[in-house]
Write a structure and sequence with these properties.
The protein is of the alpha+beta class and 242 residues long. It is built from 7 helices and 7 strands; from the N terminus they run E-E-E-E-E-H-H-H-H-E-E-H-H-H. It binds zinc ion.
Length: 242
Amino acid sequence: MIREFEGIVVSETPYSESSKIINILTKDQGVIGVMAKGAKRIKSPLRVATERFTLGIFSVYYHKDKLSTLVSADIINPLLNIKTDIVKIGYLTYIVELAHQTAKQNDDEHIYAILKSAILKIEEGKDPMVITNILELKMLDYLGVGIDLDKCIKCGSKTNILTISGDEGGYICSDCRTNELIYSDKTIKMFRLYYYVDINSITDLKISEEVTHNIDKILTDYYERFTGLYLKSKEFLKSVAK
Ligand SMILES: [Zn+2]
């Protein structure tokens, strides 16, 4: 049976002399494995469309829970702006790896939707760190370690929220604060907005550098402490940021 899947190629592995096996994170069927026959050949129409990070529509002979076979592929967006910028490639690599790891733990369809909208916003030219942080914050729910943005992590108080701590894992109220860094009101408010914003609706990002860097720091600390994920692509991003 031939089926069409929208998705993104998350990995490609050579197979025999001329073929490769690709994994596609799909819109609604989780990750599927697909044999792309002849796709390593220079003249193959499948060669470019089966490269890692291709966002496309893939027609496959579908075998549930088994390797499917690729029939044809159409690229949705060639991501030319991202692919000509080494820093943006770094962000792309990281968010695809993160979404892939998240999808392995949770088959929620929102994971692909969030990833796709984030990629397209970075391609449009929006700040890749901000878009990446928004995606990171949203992924936490699907990783089972979402941040409660309504109350103090220590006592549950909904008032007098003073700061937020990536190490402690949430908001800290003024009664519970010991030695946590105090972040500005703007940082706390923007953090909440990152969580609730629909990435597709982002048109203009006017956020101070101080706020964006604070949020990046909070999320980096939180990921290290609570997600159990170690992604090489994140280490690359950290080195670029310096
Ligand atoms: Zn408290």
